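Researcher: Let's do a round of design. I'm pasting the structure tokens now; please hold your answer until I've finished.
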């Protein structure tokens, strides 16, 4: 067995522990984390293979807002999305991974995360998502945003950065290249962010851990 790539179940579990622990530490200290090359290779590869065989027709134009307030808005975003419902093996593996992360975060940070929703996103060359927040204070059931990238060999010159406006200084920006396996998490209410246009197709998964806002009358619907 190679010392560089130990794929035994024990080694994989311990890599996962280490990643989750780093995520917890960063979230505690500054509310966000950026981990290049962090998504387990086998998971990243099967998600990428799934994307490659998915028909474009499975994707539809992303909207802005939930339910009745949901509108298509070219001014804000132009990407296409496909929700992940666990129909494919890769999708199920992804949801399992996010579920393990959710349990770890609940245990370590007592966040009370209750559910997770996520979609593939496809940004064609020139597509963008302008500066926005994933959740608004008060109606905040999206607590934590998770983004991972599935673009092999992404080059700086190709653009497509995620720009995260960090909280120490509203002018401060962190630019993240959408490189294969990079994992980003941030508190949904606290970090405005945007997606800059790229010169090639850009694939990501965006997901949100939510707290439950069910009332006696109404079961909190997903999305
Ligand atoms: C989103 C989002 C970021 C990205 O879908 O809300 O901000 O880099 N995505 O794809
Ligand atoms: Mn967002």
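Researcher: That's everything. Go ahead.
Model: Designed sequence:
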């Amino acid at each position: 067995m190679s010392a560089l790539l130990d794929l035994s179940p024990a080694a994989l579990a311990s890599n996962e522990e280490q990643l989750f622990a780093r995520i917890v530490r960063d979230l505690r200290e500054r509310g966000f984390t950026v981990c290049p090359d962090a998504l387990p290779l086998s998971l990243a590869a099967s998600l990428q293979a799934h994307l490659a065989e998915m028909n474009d027709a499975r994707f539809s134009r992303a909207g802005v807002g939930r339910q009745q307030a949901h509108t298509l808005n070219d001014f804000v975003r132009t990407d296409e999305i496909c929700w992940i419902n666990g129909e494919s093996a890769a999708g199920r593996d992804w949801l399992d991974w996010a579920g393990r992360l959710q349990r770890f975060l609940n245990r370590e940070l007592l966040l009370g995360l209750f559910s997770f929703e996520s979609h593939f996103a496809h940004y064609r060359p020139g597509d963008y998502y302008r500066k926005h927040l994933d959740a608004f204070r008060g109606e905040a059931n999206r607590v934590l945003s998770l983004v991972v990238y599935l673009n092999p060999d992404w080059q700086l010159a190709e653009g497509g950065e995620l720009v995260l406006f960090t909280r120490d200084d509203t002018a401060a920006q962190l630019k993240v290249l959408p490189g294969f396996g990079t994992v980003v998490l941030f508190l949904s209410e606290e970090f405005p962010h945007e997606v800059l246009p790229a010169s090639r197709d850009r694939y990501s998964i965006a997901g949100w851990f939510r707290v439950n806002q069910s009332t006696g009358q109404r079961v909190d619907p997903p999305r």
